[in-house]
Amino acid sequence: MPLSATLYGASDPSGPPRLASTQQPAWENWKEEPKRSQGKEAMKPTINCITLPVDDLQKSFAFYRDGLGMPAEGMAGEQDHVAFELPGDLYLVLISRSEFAGFAGFVDQSTAQPGISECILSYFASSREEVDSVLESARSAGASPTTPKDNPWGYSGYFTDPDGHMWEVTWIPDPVEVPVE
Hints:
- By secondary structure, the chain is an alpha/beta fold.
- The protein contains four helices and seven strands; from the N terminus they run αβαββαβαβββ.
- It has helices at residues 3-8, 57-67, 97-105, 128-140, and strands spanning 49-54, 81-86, 90-96, 120-124, 149-151, 154-160, 166-171.
- β6 (154-160) and β7 form a beta hairpin.
- The model is unreliable at 1-27 (pLDDT under 50).
C-alpha cells in the first residue's frame, strides 16, 4: 500500500485512519503517550516554522506573495530572509542558501542541491475546484504544475517553487476508503 494512502486516509475524529478492507487502525498505539526521557518534558507535538533555502530571495518572495497569495509585510533592503506569518502560529521562512548552510552546519549537515526534494509541503484544499485554482495560480507565477488526478486518498496535483521545493495541493474527501493492495 502506498505510504501516502495510510497517512492521508480520512478518519473518524475520535480515531486514526482506518484501512477499508479490515477497519483496523492504520497505525498501532496512535493514542499512546510519548515516552519521556528520565522525567524530562517532551516537545509539544507541533511545528511552528518551516525554513526553505532559496537562491534568489526576491524571486522566491514574489512567487510566494504574488503567485500563491501568502501574506507578507514586504522586504526591506538587503535581507537574508523573509517570513510569511500563516494561520495556526506557523511561519514559512525563505532564507538565502548561504545563510541556510550556516544553520545546517550546526548539526554537521550539508544542504541539498537545488532541485532535490527531501520533503513535500502539502496544502489541503477544501474542494477539487480549489486544487485546480491553486495549481493555476502556481502556473501563473511561473511553476509547471502536474495535471491533478484522483488518488486513493483524494484529488491532488504537484508543483515546485523557483528553488525546486515540492508542493502538493490535495483535496481529501470524507470519508475515504483506502484500498489495501
